Amino acid sequence: MNKQIGKGSSGDQENEIPPVQPDGEKRPPAVTDIIQQLGQTAVPTQGESNVYCLTIIGQIEGHLVLPPQNKTTKYEHLIPQLVAAEQNPRIEGLLIILNTVGGDVEAGLAIAEMIASLSKPTVTVVIGGGHSIGVPIAVASDFSFIAESATMTIHPIRMTGLVIGVPQTFEYIEKMQERVVRFVTAHSRIPEETFKELMFKTGELNRDIGTAVGGNDAVKYGLIDDIGGIGEGLSKLNALIESRRAAMTTGGMTQ
């Protein structure tokens, strides 16, 4: 004889049948799971706001898994978020919050290229720091802000681990470095000569070549557009959204 197990049964609660969602719908992921995995309180498909906030913090993790004690942003987590935000008609703009020490060069460039290729308005706010490969990500948006106390470290590409001492290796590093320089100068107002001068400056950083640029200096060099934080970022993003709406309305009336 089969025994029906209910909430009132003692000692058998672990065998209780979980409630079934109506119409076979899948349960949405718990908010705590989203915060833990993506650093988000909502994913683009669930948010009611027309602005999606994307956070890039810690070290940017690329093709190699970093140690568990490192605070990381995995680029394979960011790619589906950016695609979902681009596809969702309710999302009209993206606010990117950046506080990173850098990380994988190709992963950082991939994130920067995806942000730059979005059709919706984007605004970046550098809080704390946007170092190393975080610089291309910071300038990839339509408009960028930096907190006055934040810094950005500009330095040449570095490699760790086994390096084969042949000319081809150094040529590869130089070509990758040129990719970074071209992207930054194409998406900001800083001249290429100035950016390279900051990149190869000596005596500024301990045990390294490069320059630590503060918030005001980043704006002065033309690397970042303006000084500001979350409030200024949202105000600018809303203005860009309104401009896009007006352009689409005018275009539709013209057609």
UniProtKB/TrEMBL annotation:
Provide the residue span(s) of the region labelled Disordered. 1-28
Q: Which domain of life is it from?
A: Bacteria
Q: Name one GO molecular function term.
A: ATP-dependent peptidase activity
Question: GO annotations under biological process?
Answer: proteolysis
Identify its protein family: Belongs to the peptidase S14 family.
Name assigned to this protein: Translocation-enhancing protein TepA
Protein's organism: Paenibacillus faecis
Provide the organism lineage as a comma list.
Bacteria, Bacillati, Bacillota, Bacilli, Bacillales
